[in-house]
């Protein structure tokens, strides 16, 4: 190769390098706003967000390169949902992610145009959040965390692990529209199981503790904690209160059993966040929430805490141990 030709090639390459670098620098930065119904230091938070961000990275979105994420954390404080929703909308994100019905409601009050993907929402149709599961319409779609038939299974599970239970209290947040359907599903099976069902309407930590203490004064009681932002925010308080009162209790998610709860049956939270990343990716690439169907859960996990069962004097049936996805000893 002649010296003149070599200089020409190197000169052309040198000119191309800055152009390539500038093209990479000009890659459009997209923005996601996230409103979560739990505290920033909630031990379950990192695994959920890791699943979400990991899946996004698999799909080509990397924080700091072509993606920016803004977070707001709210462990069940109803007054702050609207404030944080307004803050996130003001930042002008390309898409919003939220957990729980209260977060979704606050975001929809602030914007009818920005796309929203939700996780952990109970009965979004009857709550007026979407038009239907198949065709949600509007600006929101996502993933529900409860199929109403699971509520009856909570009651069956309680009787299976604590056969002497004849009175069952249900922690119910009056502000949670989906709670009506959950309690209704339990009421439908309660007579066949020989139990009397008693919903406990609670709005804060003080009412949760007082209601459980009062219910536990009579014998043969048990408790069911349906999925709600309020219950999740006061997870440790509920577990500690039922432990003092020696109440067998069924919970909607593994996180309760991890801090000493007896048994849980519910969706795998990390899976919902992983799936939500797929919807966020599709929206960032041009699809509309109105065209993405709301998905109901298809995978559930049963988690048992044998130490708690022993402290309550309960003998866990062998068939229940066999069915368990995880046993905490």
Account of the protein in words:
Helix 2 packs parallel to helix 11 and helix 7 packs parallel to helix 9. The protein contains 13 helices and twelve strands. It is elongated. The N terminus is likely disordered. It is of the alpha/beta class and 329 residues long. The chain folds into two domains: 147 residues, Response regulator (Rossmann fold); 147 residues, Response regulator (Rossmann fold).
Q: Notable features of this structure?
A:
2 domains, Rossmann fold, 329 residues, 7-stranded mixed sheet, 19% strand
Global geometry: elongated
Instruction: Give unreliable regions as ranges.
Output: 1-11, 13-24
CATH superfamily of the largest domain: Response regulator
Rg over alpha carbons: 24 Å
Task: Classify the fold: give the CATH topology of the largest domain.
Answer: Rossmann fold
Whole-number mean pLDDT:
90
Q: What's the number of extended β-strand segments?
A: 12
The helix-strand sequence is: HEHEHEHEEHEHEHEHHEHEHEHHE
What's the structural domain tally? 2
Largest sheet properties:
7 strands, mixed
- Backbone structural class: alpha/beta
Proportion of beta-strand residues: 15-25%
CATH architecture of the largest domain: 3-Layer(aba) Sandwich
| Terminal residue distance | 74 Å
Strand order of the largest sheet: 7-6-8-9-10-11-12
| Helicity range | 40-55%
Overall CATH class of the largest domain: Alpha Beta
Number of helices: 13
């Amino acid at each position: 190769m002649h010296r003149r030709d070599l200089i020409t090639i190197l000169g052309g390459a040198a000119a191309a390098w800055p152009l390539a670098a500038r093209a990479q620098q000009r890659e459009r930065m997209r923005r996601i706003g996230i409103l979560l119904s739990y505290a920033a230091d909630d031990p379950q938070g990192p695994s959920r967000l890791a699943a979400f961000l990991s899946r996004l990275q698999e799909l080509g979105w990397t924080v700091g390169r072509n993606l920016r994420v803004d977070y707001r954390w709210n462990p069940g404080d109803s007054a702050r949902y609207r404030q944080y929703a307004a803050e996130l909308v003001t930042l002008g994100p390309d898409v919003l992610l939220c957990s729980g019905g209260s977060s979704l409601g606050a975001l929809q009050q602030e914007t009818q145009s920005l796309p929203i993907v939700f996780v952990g929402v109970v009965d979004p149709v009857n709550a007026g959040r979407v038009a239907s599961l198949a065709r949600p319409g509007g600006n929101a779609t996502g993933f529900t965390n409860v199929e109403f038939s699971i509520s009856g299974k909570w009651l069956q599970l309680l009787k299976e692990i604590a056969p002497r239970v004849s009175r069952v209290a249900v922690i119910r947040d009056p502000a949670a529209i989906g709670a009506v359907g959950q309690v209704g599903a339990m009421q439908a099976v309660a007579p066949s199981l020989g139990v009397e069902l008693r919903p406990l309407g609670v709005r804060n930590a003080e009412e949760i503790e007082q209601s459980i203490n009062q219910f536990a004064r009579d014998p043969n009681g048990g408790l069911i904690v349906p999925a709600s932002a309020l219950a999740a925010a006061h997870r440790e308080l509920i577990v500690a209160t039922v432990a003092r009162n020696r109440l067998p209790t069924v919970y909607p998610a593994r996180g309760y059993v991890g801090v000493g709860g007896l048994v849980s049956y519910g969706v795998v939270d990390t899976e919902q966040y992983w799936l939500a990343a797929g919807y966020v990716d599709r929206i960032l690439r041009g699809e509309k929430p109105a065209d993405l169907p709301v998905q109901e859960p298809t995978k559930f996990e049963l988690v048992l805490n044998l130490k708690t069962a022993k402290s309550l004097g309960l003998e866990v049936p062998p068939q229940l141990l066999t069915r368990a996805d995880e046993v905490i000893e």
